[in-house]
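Design a sequence for this backbone.
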């Protein structure tokens, strides 16, 4: 027997006898309480030893529940009492505090120097100029809209990423959209469709169409052009984004059980209530590169010329180059491409998909940027980066490697009050943000929280423009990948992108000899099917880097 089993039998036998004797020989409440305790302990322990399915309960009756209790608060204990300011993931205390401070419009400076290890491998930094500049007012917005777009959109450098109603509460959606209106940025709806809470405050919207085609489908799940046109032509809908995959779970679909489909969700998503709602892993309208581009053209016509783009998490590079080839062959180009990093995001996902699939945001944006340049398409398409953006440096890094604008999701939730409890998939969010429990969500004050969204956006952008100016630049458009410095394992600095030679315009089309895998990837890329075998064996770039001889 374990020591706790021995303790149990002592309490169950001798303890109960002593408690009974104590009660008969004394008056007052204490003897009764002691007896109640020993009887309760005995009953619980008996169940644990003889009937519990858990080994711990059988070996450590009663006290095993103490472990379960402490385990249920492990995240909070780790966050508040154990972790230091720079070691938590996905967002450490320093990052979260910065978001909270900027959202509350309070002091966001630190004292007594950095807590970061500046010699840490892969640590990113910048070189400042002795001649800082002010950012031009004309350089503070980004126009999204290619040559075939009739209604281009002037976007902020910093925007609210995709989070659906259903994943977030109604009050959270309202707060984000009202915040977007006040801040002058757009708010992506997520694949759950455009809800009344997205429309209520008239903030700019990017309508995301996922594989479920929510909001523009018939009862069988097929695309409904009339339903799409009715929503897409609303003035508040500024752009439309086709979701191919997302960083949190690339290659994974989803199922909304019919038990969770309320009348409201059924009406918003255009789905029946009598069956599970299945979101397939691949968008049914975009099963090949050419079909995707034809769908882009269809949506552009139905929306009366609004910017149309698609979102994906980069996996096999050959498949994206197949898309580039299809754009060249068809002459159809999206107005923007949203590149979602594998380090994202808000969506609940299987551990293996979240941890092991996809390219991270910086490397994916750098790849897409160069691929579009090499295919001669970069001037027609804007790149939107999405993936773990808390500070103005995070924003700057993504734009430096090739993005035109940046989306943020989790830090926008933090501006509402999210405490990173990581209960988003349980409906038990302690701040009422990622839940459909009305008792929890009603705690969100829409007007107050929208002010925090606006403050976080404004203060982060102001810091971003100041950071760009400190480098001697008067426009974020002048940022280049080599301006980012990365610390090597040898303690030296190197420019980001220096190990992988950037492409020149039309390099891929002209079949110029390019160092690395580009030529082989381009040869393997096809336009009739997304899938391409991953045959190229990658080797460390630092072992093979040479300079192009022009």
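Sequence:
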């Amino acid at each position: 027997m374990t020591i706790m089993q021995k303790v149990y039998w002592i309490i169950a036998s001798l303890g109960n006898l002593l408690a009974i004797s104590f009660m008969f020989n004394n008056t007052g409440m204490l003897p009764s309480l002691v007896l109640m305790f020993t009887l309760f302990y005995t009953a619980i322990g008996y169940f644990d030893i003889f009937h519990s399915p858990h080994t711990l309960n059988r070996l450590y009756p009663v006290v095993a529940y103490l472990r379960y209790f402490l385990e249920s608060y492990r995240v909070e204990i780790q966050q508040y009492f154990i972790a230091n300011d720079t070691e938590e993931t996905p967002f450490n205390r320093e990052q979260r505090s910065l978001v909270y401070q900027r959202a509350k419009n309070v002091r966001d400076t630190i004292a007594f120097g950095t807590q970061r290890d500046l010699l840490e491998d892969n640590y990113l930094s910048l070189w400042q100029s002795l001649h800082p500049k002010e950012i031009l007012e004309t350089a503070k917005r980004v126009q999204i809209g290619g040559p075939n777009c009739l209604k281009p959109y002037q976007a902020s450098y910093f925007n609210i990423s995709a989070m659906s109603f259903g994943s977030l509460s109604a009050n959270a959606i309202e707060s984000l959209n009202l915040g977007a209106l006040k801040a002058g940025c757009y708010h992506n709806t997520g694949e759950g469709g455009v809800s009344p809470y997205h429309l209520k405050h008239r903030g700019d919207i990017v309508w995301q169409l996922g594989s479920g085609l929510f909001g523009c489908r018939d009862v069988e799940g097929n695309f409904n052009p009339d339903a799409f046109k009715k929503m897409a032509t609303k003035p508040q809908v500024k752009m439309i984004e086709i979701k191919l995959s997302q960083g949190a779970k690339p290659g994974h679909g989803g199922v909304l059980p019919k038990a969770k489909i309320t009348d409201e969700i059924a009406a918003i998503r255009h789905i029946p209530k009598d069956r599970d709602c299945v979101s397939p892993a691949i968008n049914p309208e975009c099963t090949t590169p050419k079909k995707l581009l034809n769908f882009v053209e269809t949506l552009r016509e139905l929306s009366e010329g609004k910017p149309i783009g698609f979102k994906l998490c980069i996996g096999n590079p050959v498949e994206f180059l197949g898309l580039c080839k299809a754009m060249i062959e068809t002459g159809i180009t999206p107005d923007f491409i949203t590149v979602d990093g594998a380090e994202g995001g808000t969506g609940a996902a299987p551990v293996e998909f979240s941890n092991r699939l996809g390219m991270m945001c910086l490397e994916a944006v750098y790849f897409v940027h160069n691929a579009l340049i090499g295919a001669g398409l970069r001037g027609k398409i804007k790149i939107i980066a999405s993936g773990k953006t808390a500070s103005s440096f995070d924003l700057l890094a993504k734009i430096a490697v090739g993005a035109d604008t940046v989306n943020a999701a989790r830090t926008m939730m933090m501006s509402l009050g999210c405490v990173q409890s990581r209960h988003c998939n349980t409906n038990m969010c302690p701040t009422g943000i990622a839940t459909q429990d009305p008792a929890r969500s009603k705690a969100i004050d829409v007007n107050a929280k929208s002010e925090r969204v606006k403050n976080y956006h404004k203060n982060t952008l102001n810091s971003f423009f100041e950071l760009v100016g400190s480098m001697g630049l008067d426009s974020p458009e002048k940022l280049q990948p080599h301006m980012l410095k990365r610390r090597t394992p040898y303690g030296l600095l190197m420019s980001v992108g220096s190990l992988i030679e950037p492409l020149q315009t039309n390099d891929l089309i002209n079949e110029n000899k390019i160092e690395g895998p580009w030529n082989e990837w381009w040869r393997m890329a096809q336009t009739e099917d997304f899938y391409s075998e991953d045959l190229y064996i990658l080797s460390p770039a630092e072992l093979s880097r040479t300079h192009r001889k022009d």
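The mean pLDDT is 90.
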